[in-house]
Amino acid sequence: VDGANGNIVWQQSFAGAAGKEDDAMSVAADASGNAIVAGLTFDASGNIAIEVVKYGAADGVALWQVTPGGASHVTPRVVATDSAGNSTVGAETNASGTSDLRVVKLAAATGATLWDKSFDGGHDDYMSDLVVDGSGNVAVAGIGVNAAGNDDWTILSLDGASGAQRWKRTYDGGGA
Hints:
The protein has strands at residues 22-29, 35-42, 48-55, 62-66, 74-81, 87-93, 100-106, 113-119, 125-132, 138-145, 151-158, 165-171. It is mainly β. It has a 4-stranded antiparallel sheet, with no helix packed on it. A hairpin with a 6-residue loop joins strand 6 (87-93) and strand 7 (100-106).
């Protein structure tokens, strides 16, 4: 969309290989104006997977498209870019039998996975938001269910280069 007048500059659609439901969940723009769209698609086995497509700013041509591997049920929630144009996707996965946070960083030029981390708080964990700071580190906000069954805020700081957890804070409001 043209920022000056709101006119459509280009538009694209996506159809996954399985011919089933495909949903865009989040979009981010890199410094060059390319659009990075994170969504979900069904694979041939009927499992939900993350799908990320980078579209060129000028004409909407797909520059790359990736489906990072992983659990049989993965729902992307948010995508952000860093100053180098790399994309970081925040998602929920059920690899451990409960919902966990999953964060995947993809290379700007190819979409190759730079790192892929999952975080299990012991019970269900849900992705709310994700941002990348000026140093490339990633801040993740989510909701974690505690042992009493109440929802708590969970904030994670991840190293941008490796995905290693820098710190974690949980805020328990004492109620649901």
